[in-house]
Amino acid sequence: MNIFNEVGALAISTRLQRLSDQFRKDGVLIYQHNGISFEPKWFPVIYVLHKKESLGIMELSEEIGYAHPSTISLLKELEKEGLVESFKDQRDERKRMVRLSEKARALVEQMQPVWEKIRKTAEQIIDNANNLLQAMDETEYQLKKEGFFERYKRMENEETNAAISIVDYKPEHAKAFYDLNYAWISETYEVEPEDEKTLSNPETYYLKDGGAILIALYGGEPVGTCALKRNGDIVEMSKMTVSKSMRGKKIGDLLGNAVIEKARELGASKVILYSNRKGSAAGINLYKKLGFEEVPLTEHNFKRADIKMEMELD
């Protein structure tokens, strides 16, 4: 058995390509056998224009299921062969239409009986317990509902979320809290004295006055942090970061939602934060998605801060 038959769905693209190549190769032989100069790759455009008479480029792309650039490339080849011709739409001269040429229409007439034999031959091949056409219909339906890449990302996020836990800070998290935050700060900004103060003694800076620190664990290892410093019924959110190797997995969303819920548990009426527009653009987008709004910048402890945001809690 071929190795690609053994690995199952992992090789689906390879096996479909292999099937396609075999059908195309034999298709060329069939046309040659009948004395017809025709490439199987032309079939989608020729057949659709045979049925629809004329179409705009975008309409044709949608009909054959090809990307616009691929359709344009195929049309150029067919125009060179004298099989299609373009013209302006009478209702909108900016719109380019295409149709079969006289040469192509004559060729279609010649190919009709050959197509019928090809159809019957293909039906023999797929007439089995696992009907290929039905499987293709079902697969195309699934891809239309959710593309392969989108489905991959969703499943990856689901697996990541299942392995992620958000926990309250413990003394054994001190080194991870320091290292994770020092890494992102030093990468983009100057590490300021206030940073050293908060990172070196987070328990005193955040927890002593009734604040909180949350740690994101992936497989038991710290990969993200976020802290709340309390000032009466207002809490300031800071030191929110995710390990560089774990970014893009929505861990920031999980941390952000968890820290807002933590602020509610603390009885806070408002959450504020300070950030930097340029260096933390992705973070600011996340804060907006979480429900934070920009407010006038007031006194703060960091030189890099150039934006203040806040969220009123119910």
From TrEMBL:
Signal peptide: none annotated. The keyword Transferase applies. Residues 9-157 form the HTH marR-type domain. It comes from the Bacteria. InterPro entries: Acyl_CoA_acyltransferase, ArsR-like_HTH, GNAT_dom, HTH_MarR-typ, NAT_camello-type, WH-like_DNA-bd_sf, WH_DNA-bd_sf. CDD domains: HTH_ARSR, NAT_SF. One of its GO terms (molecular function) is DNA-binding transcription factor activity. Keywords: Transferase. Residues 164-314 form the N-acetyltransferase domain. This is MarR family transcriptional regulator with acetyltransferase activity. The lineage of its organism: Bacteria, Pseudomonadati, Bacteroidota, Cytophagia, Cytophagales.
